[in-house]
Amino acid sequence: MLTSLKSWFISQPCDDHLADYAKSGDNRHLTKLVALFGNDLYHYLVTQSNEQLAFDISQQTWLKVIEKRHYYQSQDNPKAWLFRLARNALIDEFRKQQRFVELEDDTAIAAPNTQQDFDYDAFNHALMQLSFVQREALSLQQEGFSLEDIQQITQSNHETVKTRLRYAKQNLKTLLGAHNEQA
Question: How far apart are CA 41 and CA 57, in angstroms?
Answer without folding.
Answer: 10
